[in-house]
Amino acid sequence: MSKKELAVMLSKLKVFEEPEMKLEQYPTDSEVAADALWLAYMQGDVDGKVIADLGSGTGILGLGALALGAKKAYLVDIDAKAMELAMENKEFLEEKLGRKLEAAFSAGDISMFDEKVDVVIMNPPFGTKNEHIDSAFLLKAMDLAKTIYTFHKASTKNFIDRLISESKFKAIHYQECDFPLKQSMPQHRKRIERIRVGLWRLEKKQ
Q1: How confident is the model over 110-167, as pLDDT tens digits?
Q2: Using CA of residue 95, residue 97, residue 98, residue 99, what is the dihedral sign?
Q3: pTM
Q4: 30, 109, 118: which is closest to 72 by C-alpha?
Q5: Are 117 and 74 in contact (CB under 8 A)?
Q6: Strand partners, 72
Q7: Angstrom distance (rounded) from CA 205 to CA 146
Q8: What is the rounded distance in angstroms from the CA atom of residue 167 to the CA atom of residue 174?
Q9: Which of 17, 60, 167, 204 sits CB 3.0–4.6 Å from 146 for a disulfide?
Q10: CATH topology of domain 3-204
Q11: Direct distance between the N- and C-terminal alpha carbons of the chain, in angstroms, rounded to an integer
C-alpha cells in the first residue's frame, strides 16, 4: 500500500456527525493522518507493533496503523459514540483489506488506561476548551510507551518542548503542517479553517 492509497482509504472512514465542542472533536484529516502513519511506518514503528491511540475519536490513527501492519491497536476515547463509529470503521477496513484487524476499544478517560504498548500515535485535544489537557495526554503516553507520535498546535511548541525536556524522553523528529478544520461547529465561520500543527516523534532516553 502506498501513502496515497492509505490516505484515500482513510478518507472513507466515518467521522462525527454531531461533534462535541467541549471534547474538541475535530476529525483528523486523512492526508495528515497518512503522513504521520507513513513516517511511523518508515521508522519501523508500525509493522508488528502494539499501538495505542489516545483520544482516538473515530479511530483514523489506530486503525490506519493496523492497515499498515500493526499487530494490535488500543483505541481509547472518553466518548462512547466515538467508539461505536470506530468499530464500524474497523469493519469497513477489514472488508477493504480482506483480513481481520486486532483492535481493542476502550470508552473512558485515558487515566483509566494502563496497557503497556510499543508506540503511542495520537492527536489529542489541543487544550483550547480544556486547558492543559494536551499535556495530560502527553504525560500519559510517556507512561505507556517508549516511542510516541503526537500532534499539538505549533503555537504551543515552546511549552511542549519544555515538557519533553523535563521528562525521560527526547524529541527525535518534528514537522509542521496545515491542519484543516472543516466547518462542523456553530462558531466556525469558514468552510475550512487551517491551523498550524506540529507532529513530534519522541523516544525514551536510554
Answers
A1: 999 999 999 999 999 876 566 678 899 999 999 999 999 999 999 999 999 999 999 9
A2: negative
A3: 0.91
A4: 118
A5: yes
A6: 50
A7: 8
A8: 17
A9: 204
A10: Rossmann fold (3.40.50)
A11: 33
